[in-house]
Amino acid sequence: MTEPTASPFASFTESDLRRLFDRQEYVVEDDIVVPVLLALRLGRPLLVEGEPGSGKTELGTVLADGLETELVRLQCYEGLAAENTLYEWNYTKQLLSVQAGERGVTDDSSVFDEEYLLERPLLRALSGDREQPAVLLIDEVDRADREFEALLLEFLSEFQVTVPELGTIEASVPPIVLITSNRTRGLSDALKRRCLYLHLEPPSFEKEREIVQRKAPELDGETAAEICGVVQRLREEPLLKQPGIAETLDWSRALLELRFGTGAEESDADESDADETEPDTDTALSPRLIDRTLSCLLKEAEDVSRIDDDLLEDLARAARDARERTEGQ
Amino acid sequence: MTGGTESAALEAVRDHVLSEVVTFADALRAEGATVPPTATVTAARAVAALPESDETRVRAALRTTLVSQRADIDAFERLFPVFWENLTGSGTDESSAASDGTTQPFAVPQAGESNRDGRDRDETGESIDRTERAQSVVPESNAPADGDDESDTERDDGHVFRALSTRTGRSERLVVDDIAIPGADVREPLERIGRALGRKRGRRLSDDPAGSKLNVRRTLRRSFGTGGTVLEVDRRSYDQTAVNAIVLVDVSRSVLDSIDRGFLLGVLRQMRADWRSVRVFFFDTSLREVTAQFDEPSSDRAIAALERAETEWGGGTRIGHALSTLRTDYADAVDRETAVLVISDGLEVGELDRLERGMVWLSRRADSVLWLNPLAVDAEYEPTCRGMAVASPYVDGLFGFARPADLEEIARQLSLRGVHGRIGYVYDGRGDSARRPRGRGWARSDTASEGDER
């Protein structure tokens, strides 16, 4: 049994990682800190799965920013080919160079030189003299074909790319690899076996409230609690597309705009006309306001049509409960 | 405490943790979770890498390493408390205070009976017993390979049933413990396959009224009944059973993760031994002939010869490039009597045009082309990946190939229907045939007449 090669993060501690996330305003719990720490310390790729909008891509961005290193992102799609991920030759430049050589303008002996090489994300993550490893974010790998997974196996095993005309390019420091998947299809066992696994669950009420407060500090604590109360209640419904953290933040910003932005006056006037019987219409989320802004949370027509008056009342009640809980703390 | 005692105690704790992790993985598998074979090793490393080993962190570390899909998280969460209780309740210093000093049974809530039974039998056993039992539950089918650690290599009644893989995934020198395939498992189906593929005159004579050979003995014996007068002459001819074949073996990482190396080498060696003429080529990003290495008199020497030849495992997969090299550098290897066997998963990373040109040439030049695909053992497999989609119209049969039973199935189909009949994974009679996409089969004889192809 071989021991894994020493990781540059062998001495990286949990508190270092927590501080990093904290600096980047990224709210995490143990279920995220430990997998990321292990990925860093063991030098293994981390496969991050979760619903769209759960913060998978953000994790890569935060890590790169926090470690003050380059984020190399490879967005996967159907038909992604090796040349789109590894390298290509700059044919136009090569052609011009050859033509120039024929006219005696240049005496370059070869057009297969690094000068003519176009680095694509996988090669870019390896090249360069870095002290800190780059963060390689392979986003939505489930969109790519199985052939790409096979290519990825080779890459993740060795962290080197062979360019026949130039030789082998090896990473001086292996990149930190994050692979995200929306689970639209199953990944191969071989790929999963090489990765540590992290499934991002929808956040708890407390965690979501903290995220909202950090990302939208203009919102007061009670409003943030209301927003999270509604979203948590909404997630209990059998929706086709559950609102993720991204949707919660969108909604928070939309409410902020409605309450304090240009449309605030008009909105509040409408509110008071329509919901005369509602308590605290100037502060609490009313069914009408929720209904008007649902498009920030729900992205499927079937889900929107599921929201009837009763459910809107439930959502408003959940908001009031959350506000009261927060005020009581 | 002296240094020696301390070291022994640490070792005992380590063994206990390892043992419990393996047992936990075993229990997860019994619950239907997909736990990769190497996951236990990774899990142990993860636990060792944790700065503090409290329950929350250990739970997160094990979930990260033992779970590889969302569907298994529930089972993990249900079983983890039992694991934690066993881990902290016995085997460590704390455990010495336990009432009976034995490991707690892994009495999993709602776990399968077999797991409970198995655990009860192991209750008083040593940790190594549990380790062995845990390994024995790895499914026999196309089980995932050990990507990092060859120590997970295991056998069931002497059969290698899980792929050995490289530790780092890079191209590396060939390493195989041994070629330990029981001869009978592969010899008999290979003989039948050979007879079906054979286009050259064999050594065996069989009755043939139009044959050129006279069966003197039988003719004379029959003449005794007519007073020595020969009324009918018995004739014989040589069977067309001698095989002239080439085998193109994809030794890229994705294939080696799906098929056992020992099994693969054992089959190749047996082909080389039993068939009239077989040339073996390995390819990944380049093609190289390794026929001579399989002629060594023993398995060990064959492996040593492959090592001496610096045969490597695991590069990329450029089938089109390999076929192109075969065409230019080894053109004499393929003629109208040659059966071509391609062992590959078809996950081409090279140019598809080149692959198609190579397959057209191969199908025209050779007598038959069979594609043995380790991924096709899956009941839901369809050749939809781009490489396989390009290649499949030009092959006579696409079969699953990962274990001896697959050879049996290939032999059965070839014996029944011949190499140009309706053969392939879609006609695999094993298991739940309803799961096979029969209506979408692609065997060449289904899609085009033989005349069109040649």
UniProtKB/TrEMBL annotation, chain A:
Residues in the signal sequence: none
Q: Which InterPro entries match?
A: ATPase_dyneun-rel_AAA, CbbQ/NirQ/NorQ/GpvN, P-loop_NTPase
- Region annotated Disordered sits at 263-287
Q: One Pfam family of this protein, by short name?
A: AAA_5
Which regions are flagged for Acidic residues bias?
Answer: 265-281
Q: Where is the ATPase dynein-related AAA domain?
A: 46-195
| MF-aspect GO terms | ATP binding; ATP hydrolysis activity
Q: Which CDD domains match?
A: AAA
Name of protein: ATPase
Protein species of origin: Natronococcus pandeyae
Lineage summary: Archaea, Methanobacteriati, Methanobacteriota, Stenosarchaea group, Halobacteria
